[in-house]
């Protein structure tokens, strides 16, 4: 993939994208960058199922019990929740697009230049289908671009176009399962003092009091109107995930802890210790999209040594 160019070596970004099959024969796209970082995206659900740094270390959690068998979304990686987040509507939990087969979009409408510079990327597309229109009677085109930067950062850009004659509303989330050393040692910064809806007490609105979010029991919350940079600090591994987002005002935070883990067939009993979901989302005030209009929601994930963090980010 390194090709000669004026006697210097240049990376062939197109060739750094490979289509392979997963263990169930489903197509998946593998993205690689020149330094050895990689990401994997399944056409089932357009779900990112792996993101590795240049040392080959996995950064996203995937349950050892997940089968990756359609139609159910794999438990881990980054499922896309659309057109409904959670159970806040009449559709299946988190909506249906994570359970559908997407296609590779070879000719996507252009994105601004800074979304495509120096990245290896893939564009996926899902169009509304007759079956789904029985439960959600709206025509849409959903485009997802997944990009791996030369710095190993992972970007997801979702574009939803209303190709209906009428407006429609939706909620949305990048349901991001981060892999962590020990949930009891994790701090999330950037959500302090915000209001959240607590899914464990009938979506009651509560104001966060702590100076960071920490975990000592099940957490299932939607933080409202959050800043666009959130940090997830993993003290034991001396590393921090940075979550940057645009068009995604809310952040869902979830860890099932012991009791709920036992009730989930596709989740190992102790696996809750090694994951936290921190989702850039639009939940409280759904997007209302007029005919012919497009909505964009961007997520940018990076991974830095802890020493880099809080003060330099102004968190
Ligand atoms: O089991 P699923 O459909 O992947 O959902 C997992 C969890 O996702 C979280 O975002 C929800 O707030 C939880 O209530 C839910 O249990």
Automatic annotation (TrEMBL):
One of its GO terms (biological process) is carbohydrate metabolic process. It is an enzyme of class 5 (isomerase). It catalyses: alpha-D-glucose 6-phosphate = beta-D-glucose 6-phosphate. Pfam families: Aldose_epim (PF01263). Keywords: Isomerase. GO terms for cellular component: cytoplasm. One of its GO terms (molecular function) is glucose-6-phosphate 1-epimerase activity. CDD domains: D-hex-6-P-epi_like. InterPro entries: Aldose_1/G6P_1-epimerase (IPR008183), G6P_1-epimerase (IPR025532), Gal_mutarotase_sf_dom (IPR011013), GH-type_carb-bd (IPR014718). Its EC number is 5.1.3.15. Belongs to the glucose-6-phosphate 1-epimerase family. This is glucose-6-phosphate 1-epimerase. It comes from Lupinus angustifolius (Narrow-leaved blue lupine).
């Amino acid at each position: 993939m390194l090709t000669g160019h004026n006697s210097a070596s240049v990376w062939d970004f197109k060739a750094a994208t490979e289509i392979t099959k997963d263990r169930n024969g489903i197509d998946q796209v593998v993205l690689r960058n020149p330094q050895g970082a990689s990401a994997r995206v399944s056409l089932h659900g357009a779900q990112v199922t792996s993101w590795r740094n240049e040392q080959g270390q996995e950064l996203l959690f995937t349950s050892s019990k997940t089968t990756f068998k359609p139609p159910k979304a794999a438990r881990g990686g980054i499922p896309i929740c659309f057109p409904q987040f959670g159970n806040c509507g009449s559709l299946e939990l988190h909506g249906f697009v994570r359970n559908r087969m997407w296609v590779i979009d070879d000719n996507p409408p252009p994105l601004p230049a800074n979304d495509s510079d120096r990245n290896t990327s893939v564009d996926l597309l899902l169009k509304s289908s007759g079956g789904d229109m029985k439960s959600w009677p709206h025509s849409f085109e959903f485009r997802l671009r997944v990009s791996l930067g030369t710095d190993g950062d992972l970007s997801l850009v979702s574009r939803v176009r209303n190709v209906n004659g009428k407006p429609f509303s939706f909620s949305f989330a990048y349901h991001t399962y981060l892999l962590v050393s020990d949930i009891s040692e994790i701090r999330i910064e950037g959500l302090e003092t915000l209001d959240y809806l607590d899914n464990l007490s009938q979506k009651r609105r509560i104001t966060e009091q702590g100076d960071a979010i920490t975990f000592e029991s099940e957490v299932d919350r939607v933080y409202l109107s959050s800043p666009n940079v959130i940090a997830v600090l993993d003290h034991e591994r001396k590393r921090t995930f940075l979550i940057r987002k645009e068009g995604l005002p809310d952040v869902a935070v979830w860890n099932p802890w012991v009791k709920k883990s036992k009730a989930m067939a596709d989740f190992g009993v102790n696996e809750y210790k090694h994951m936290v979901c921190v989702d850039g989302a639009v939940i409280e005030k759904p997007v209302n999209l007029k005919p012919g209009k497009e909505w964009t929601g961007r997520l940018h994930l990076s991974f830095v040594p802890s020493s880099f963090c809080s003060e330099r980010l102004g968190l």
